[in-house]
Design goal:
The chain has 202 residues and is mainly alpha-helical. The protein has a single domain (2-199), classed as Fumarate Reductase Cytochrome B subunit, CATH 1.20.950.20. The chain is 60% helix and 5% strand. It contains six helices and two strands. The protein has a two-stranded antiparallel sheet. The protein is elongated and about 60 Å long.
Length: 202
């Protein structure tokens, strides 16, 4: 038996889908800039990649403000409680129709494993990709600050590509996990409407 509760607020859904779109644009154009394929041309890919990056930074600025003014930042506080149960569920339980060990609520939208994943994203992957990206973008200004003597463009590019592979892996794992609800599209539907169906037996 499922209970229907309103979990995802309007702005939350807006920034989620806007962020997803911008990240997809950055992945597609970024790997073209890297030389993985030719789609829209190098120059256009660089311009689109840079524009999407700035747009994402602006979106994040508004979202951080929203998170702190609404208290939603608490949703991302990491916890090791029941992490083992979540790992067992995703590696074994999900294939044996075991009950989900976590029940979503308005106060707790993310399970402990998701919180740790977001912590890794915010504490490691994001600084890596954004730090290297900014150094890459402003390569022409390195000499003004004497950075051309201590930094290697090749290393900055390598770190940026490493971050790109990490964020791409995170993205596809995230997409896969959206299919693990009580129906394949249940989680996607919830992020569109804001309403989530949760098991009343928890």
């Amino acid at each position: 038996m499922n209970e229907r509760i309103y979990i995802y607020k309007r702005y939350e859904r807006f920034w989620h889908w806007s962020q997803a779109l911008l990240i997809i644009v950055m992945m597609v154009t970024g790997f073209e800039v890297h030389g993985s394929y030719a789609l829209i041309g190098f120059e256009q890919a660089v311009q689109a990649h840079t524009l999407a990056a700035w747009a994402l930074l602006v979106l994040w600025a508004f979202t951080i403000f929203w998170q702190f003014t609404t208290g939603e930042w608490r949703q991302y506080l990491p916890s090791l409680k029941n992490v083992g149960a979540m790992i067992r569920y995703y590696t074994i339980g999900i294939f044996t129709n075991a009950p989900h060990p976590f029940r979503k609520t308005v106060a707790q939208k993310h399970n402990p494993l998701q919180r740790l994943a977001y912590l890794a994203l915010l504490a490691f992957i994001s600084p890596l990709i954004w730090g290297s990206g900014i150094f890459y973008l402003f390569y022409g200004d390195w000499a003004k600050f004497g950075l051309d003597r201590s930094l290697s463009l090749a290393w900055v590019a390598t770190l940026h590509v490493l971050g790109a592979y990490m964020i791409t892996a995170f993205f596809f794992i995230h997409v896969y996990l959206t299919t693990t609800g009580h129906t394949v599209f249940a989680h996607v539907k919830a992020m569109i409407t804001g309403w989530e169906e949760v098991d009343e037996r928890h």
